[in-house]
Write a structure and sequence with these properties.
By secondary structure, the chain is mainly beta. The chain contains three helices and 45 strands.
C-alpha cells in the first residue's frame, strides 16, 4: 500500500491526533507525472560576501546597487565579488525598514532614529530635522516617504522627494480605533496602516496640504502582532495577526479584509511562543513557488523557530538550521531580490547568501531535512496490530557525489557488506576516523513510533545510492509489529549534501486479528 508520506507540516496539540512534521522539505504539485506531487529539499545558502560582524538587519536594492545594514554599519557592494564598501553607521538593534524614492534611501530603525543615503551626492547621515518624530517603518508613495511615529497613532510624510525635511503639520492620526500604529506598508499606491487591533487603508487624494486620506469602508478589525512580520508578495500582504480576541493567526489580504492562512497546528505552536512582537517575516519567489517565511528569533530555548507558507500549494513547512544536534531558526534574517538571485542576510553574522537549489547545506553548516507521517492513511486505522514487513522509499536515487577519492578503509569496509547488516555497516562507515567522504554514499535514517509519536525506535540507516545508481532501492525490511496504541508514525531524515526528491513510499504490512 502507499503510505501517505506526501503532505505538509501538521503537528497537532495532541500528537496522537496528528504528528506530520516537515522540515527543510516542501511539496510541489506535478501535473503529469508519476504522482500528483513530490517532496523536494529547500534551497541551501550559498555565501556571496561578508559585511561587518552582523547580524544583517536589512537588505535593499535600487539604482543597480545592493545595500545592507549589518550590525551598526551601512554598506554597499562593488564588483562581481560584491566587495563591501562601508558608507556609515546605523544605531539601534533589531530589524530595519527601508524605502527609496529613486535617489534617497530612507532607513528606519526600531529605536526611532532614521537615516538618509543619497545615491547622487553620496552623503549618508541621521535625519536631524527638529520636527522629525522618529520612524518605526517606512514606505514610499507618489514622491513622499510615509512613516509611523513610535508609540503613537500618527502617520507622517516627508517633503516631496526630500526625506530629510519634515513639515510639523504633515501628519494625520489613524483614529478608526484607539489602538496605536504598529507599522505602515505601501501596496498598489495605497498606504496600509496597521495598528495593534485594526487596519486602515489610505490613498493619495492629491491635496497640497496633506495628500493622504482614509478610504471609507477599508477598515479591518485584524491588527498586527509584530511590525516586521508584515511583507508583500503576489499582489497581496501577509502578516502575523492580533486583535481584541487574541493573537497568533497568520493572514493574507483579500481585498481590504484579512483571510486566515495558518492552520490550527501552526497556530497552537505560535501562540505557545508567548511574546510575538519580535517576529520577522519576508517573502520570496523561486521556481513558481511564492513563500512567506516567518521567524520567531527567541523561542525554543533561544534557538528560535521558522515557519514557511507556500502559496502554490497553500501548505506549511518548517525551515531550520541544524546546530549542536538540534533544530533552530533558519539563518535567513531578511531578503532582497537582486540580479536574478534571492539574497539573504544572516541572522548570526555579517554574511550575505543567496538561496540556491543546487546547494544542499547552509553555508558551511549541514542542512538536515526531516519528514514524519502516519503509516496508515486517515480513517484506516482499526486499532489492530499490523506486521510491518518492509518500507521502500520512492525517491530519486543515485544522487551521491561523484569525483571524490574513496579511502582504502571504506573499500575494505564495503567488502564486509556480505557479513554485516546495513545498520552495522553504517555504524562502521560513520565511525570516527573512518574517512567516509560526505555525500559519496548518501544515507537516509528511518525510525518509528508505535505510540503515536511520543517515543521512538532506534535509528535504521540506508543508502540512497552512489552517483549514477539510479535503480538503487532504498528499502528497510523486518520492521516489526505495531503494538501499544497500534498507531505507527514513521520518520525519515538526512544531512548529506545531495539532492532530495521523494515521490512516495510503499509499505508492505499484514493486519492481524488482535
Amino acid at each position: 500500500m502507499k503510505t501517505p508520506i506526501l503532505g505538509s507540516s501538521y503537528v497537532a496539540r495532541s500528537v496522537n491526533a496528528a504528528a506530520a512534521r516537515m522540515v527543510n522539505l516542501f511539496p510541489e504539485a506535478v501535473l503529469e507525472g508519476k504522482e500528483a506531487a513530490y517532496l523536494q529539499r529547500c534551497p541551501g545558502l550559498r555565501l556571496i560576501t561578508t559585511a561587518g560582524i552582523g547580524p544583517v538587519r536589512g537588505l535593499w536594492a535600487y539604482g543597480g546597487k545592493l545595500y545592507a545594514v549589518s550590525g551598526g554599519e551601512f554598506y554597499t557592494f562593488t564588483g562581481v565579488d560584491y566587495t563591501p564598501e562601508l558608507l556609515g553607521s546605523v544605531g539601534s538593534v533589531g530589524p530595519v525598514s527601508m524605502a527609496d524614492n529613486g535617489t534617497q534611501l530612507f532607513i528606519a530603525t526600531s529605536g526611532g532614529d532614521s537615516y538618509i543615503w543619497n545615491a547622487q551626492t553620496k552623503v549618508f547621515g541621521l535625519i536631524t530635522d527638529p520636527d522629525f518624530p522618529g520612524a518605526v517603518t517606512v514606505g514610499f508613495i507618489d514622491g513622499y516617504f510615509v512613516f509611523n511615529e513610535p508609540d503613537s497613532q500618527k502617520l507622517w510624510i516627508t517633503s516631496l522627494y526630500e526625506g530629510t525635511q519634515i513639515d510639523p503639520l504633515e501628519f494625520a492620526s489613524a483614529e478608526g480605533n484607539p489602538d496605536g500604529i504598529v507599522a505602515v506598508i505601501v501596496d498598489h499606491r495605497e498606504v496600509w496602516v496597521f495598528g495593534t487591533q485594526t487596519v486602515e487603508v489610505w490613498y493619495d487624494n492629491g491635496n497640497t496640504d496633506f495628500p493622504l486620506e482614509r478610504i471609507q469602508g477599508a477598515f479591518n478589525e485584524i491588527g498586527l502582532a509584530a511590525p516586521f512580520s508584515l511583507a508583500k508578495m503576489d499582489n497581496r500582504l501577509f502578516w502575523l495577526g492580533a486583535d481584541v480576541r487574541g493573537h497568533g493567526m497568520v493572514y493574507v489580504a483579500n481585498g481590504y479584509t484579512g483571510t486566515r492562512i495558518s492552520t490550527h497546528a501552526v497556530e497552537w505552536q505560535i501562540q505557545a511562543y508567548g511574546d510575538l512582537s519580535d517576529a520577522i517575516g519576508y517573502t520570496y519567489q523561486q521556481d513558481g513557488h511564492s513563500f512567506y517565511v516567518l521567524t520567531f528569533p527567541k523561542v525554543n530555548d533561544g534557538l528560535g523557530a521558522t515557519w514557511c507558507y507556500d502559496v502554490a500549494t497553500q501548505s506549511w513547512h518548517e525551515r531550520a538550521s541544524w546546530v549542536n544536534e538540534r533544530f533552530g531558526r533558519h539563518r535567513g534574517n531578511c531578503q532582497q531580490a537582486f540580479k536574478n538571485d534571492v539574497f539573504i542576510g544572516d541572522a548570526v553574522s555579517g554574511r550575505i547568501f543567496v538561496y540556491d537549489q543546487t546547494v544542499y547545506s547552509d553555508d558551511s553548516e549541514p542542512q538536515k531535512w526531516l519528514r514524519s507521517w502516519r503509516a496508515l492513511p486517515p480513517n484506516q486505522n482499526n486499532l489492530k496490530r499490523t506486521a510491518h514487513h518492509s518500507l521502500q522509499l520512492d525517491c530519486e536515487t543515485g544522487v551521491g557525489l561523484g569525483g571524490l577519492a574513496v579511502p582504502d578503509q571504506l573499500l575494505a569496509a564495503e567488502t564486509l557488506a556480505l557479513l554485516l547488516t546495513e545498520d552495522e555497516l553504517h555504524t562502521l562507515l560513520i565511525a570516527p576516523g573512518s574517512g567516509t567522504p560526505v555525500g559519496v554514499d548518501p544515507l537516509v535514517m528511518l525510525r518509528w513510533s508505535d505510540d503515536g509519536g511520543h517515543t521512538w525506535s532506534n535509528e535504521h540507516w540506508r543508502s540512497m545510492g552512489r552517483v549514477g545508481q539510479y535503480s538503487y532501492r532504498t528499502l528497510w525490511r523486518r520492521l516489526g509489529m505495531s503494538v501499544k496504541l497500534r498507531d505507527r508514525v514513521y520518520e525519515i531524515s538526512g544531512t548529506d549534501p545531495v539532492k532530495i526528491a521523494i515521490m512516495g513510499a510503499e509499505l508492505h504490512l499484514s493486519p492481524t486479528n488482535a
